Amino acid sequence: MGVKVNPESKIKDLNVAKRQLIEITKAISYNSHLIIMDEPTSALSGEEIKELFDLIKSLKAQGKTFIFITHKLDEVFGIADYITVLRDGKHIGTDSVSNFTIDKLVQMMVGRELKQIFAKQSHSTSEVILSVRNLSKRGQFYNVSFDLHRGEVLGIAGLLGAGRTELVQALFGVSQPDEGEIWIKGKKAQTISPSSAKTYYKMAYLTEDRRTTGLFLNRPVKENIIIANALSFRSGLLLNKKKIKETCQTEKEKLDIKAFSLDQPVESLSGGNQQKVLISRWLLCNPEILILDEPTRGIDVGAKAEIYKLISTLANEGKAILMISSELYEILGMSDRILVMHEGKVTGILDREEASQEKILRYAMGITA
C-alpha cells in the first residue's frame, strides 16, 4: 500500500490521514471478494487518493467488487461504474455513470440544483478583528501573516501537511507558537489558552475530527450542546435542567438538528447532525471569531448546503470566520478571500474574484511564479 508508518507506532499517535490509510490497508488485507468502503478518502491528500484509486482499479481487474460510499462528487465520476443515489433513507435511482452529470446527481441527492447549494453573499467589512504577524512554530508553520475582517469568510487552502490545522490550533491556544504576534480587536494577545480564547477573546474552534476531538459520543445531545457553556446554566450549586432543556430545544430547532430526543447519545446521530450539535455548542458561547476546520467533512450534500447557509448567515451577522477546507469547490464557493499554504508557509492570498482552482493548486504546490 506504500503507507509510510512505523509498524510499532500506536494508532492514537497518528494523524487522521494515516489512520485512514491503516484502516484501508486492513480491509484490503482480508482478500475479500466484496469490499465496502465508507468515506475512505475523507482525510486523504490528492496523491493518496490517486494511489487508492489505482489499487481499486487493479483489484477490480482481478475480479474484486467494491461498494464505494462518498460525498465527493468528483470521486464518483473518477472511480464508479454505476451510481446509486439514496436520500432520507430512500432509493432515488441507479444508473450507469455515463448517464449522469454532476448537476443531475446533485439534484437527485438534495432535490435542488447545484447553484442553489452555495448561499454565500459577501458581508465583509473593513474592520480588522484578528491580525496575525510573523507567527511561527518550528516544524509546523513559518512567518504566517494575515488579517481577518468582521463579516468575512477567510478560506484556508493547502495540501495535506501544509500546516493549516497546526496554525489554527495555535490561534486558539491548543498549542503555543514559538514566535510572532496575535492581535485581536486592536489589542496584542498575550499567551492564549483554549479557555481564554473562548471566554476572553470570544473565539470558537470546530475541530477537523468531530468524533475524536469534538464530541462526547456516549453522552446525550443536550450535554454535548451545553458543555462549553455549562456554567451559565447554574442555579446555585446545581445545573438548571429546565433551562438546559429549553435552550437545547431552541438550538435543535434553530439548526434543524434531526434527533428523536435531546437525551439520545450523540453518536446515534448522522454525521451532519453531529456537526450541527458541535456548531450549536459554540454558538451558545456567542463568539465573534469562528475557526471551522473541515466543517463539512464526511456529511452529505444536503447537510453541507445547510451548513453553508448557516456560515453565510453568521458572516452576515458580523462574525469573522476562518474556514479550512480540502474541497476546492467549497473554498471557492464560500470564501471572500483565500489564504493558501504550502509546507507551513503562506504562498498566496487571493480575492474571491481572482481565485480559481488552478491558482489555488499552484500555490498549494508551492508554485508562485
Structure description:
The structure is a single chain. The protein has 369 residues and is α/β, with parallel strands linked by helices. The chain has 2 domains: 70 residues, no CATH class; 237 residues, Rossmann fold (3-Layer(aba) Sandwich). The chain has 13 helices and 16 strands. The protein has a 6-stranded mixed sheet with strand order 10-13-14-7-15-16, with helices on both faces. It has a 4-stranded antiparallel sheet with strand order 6-5-8-9, with helices on one face. The chain has a two-stranded parallel ribbon with strand order 1-2. The mean pLDDT is 89.
Short characterization:
35% of the residues lie in helices and 24% in strands. The chain is α/β, with parallel strands linked by helices. The protein starts with 15 loop residues before the first helix and ends in a 5-residue tail after the last helix.
Topology:
Layout: H1 16-29, E1 34-38, H2 46-61, E2 65-69, H3 73-79, E3 82-87, E4 90-96, H4 102-110, E5 128-137, E6 141-149, E7 153-158, H5 164-172, E8 179-184, E9 187-188, H6 194-199, E10 203-206, H7 210-214, H8 221-226, E11 234-235, E12 238-239, H9 241-254, H10 271-283, E13 289-293, H11 301-316, E14 320-324, H12 328-334, E15 337-342, E16 345-351, H13 357-364
Parallel strand pairs: 1-2, 7-14, 7-15, 10-13, 13-14
Antiparallel strand pairs: 3-4, 5-6, 5-8, 8-9, 11-12, 15-16
| Rg | 21 Å
What does the oligomeric state look like here? single chain
Can you tell me the CATH architecture of the largest domain? 3-Layer(aba) Sandwich
Using the coordinates shown, work out and report the CATH topology of the largest domain: Rossmann fold
Structural category is alpha/beta
**CATH homologous superfamily descriptor of the largest domain:** P-loop containing nucleotide triphosphate hydrolases
Proportion of strand residues? 15-25%
- Total of domains: 2
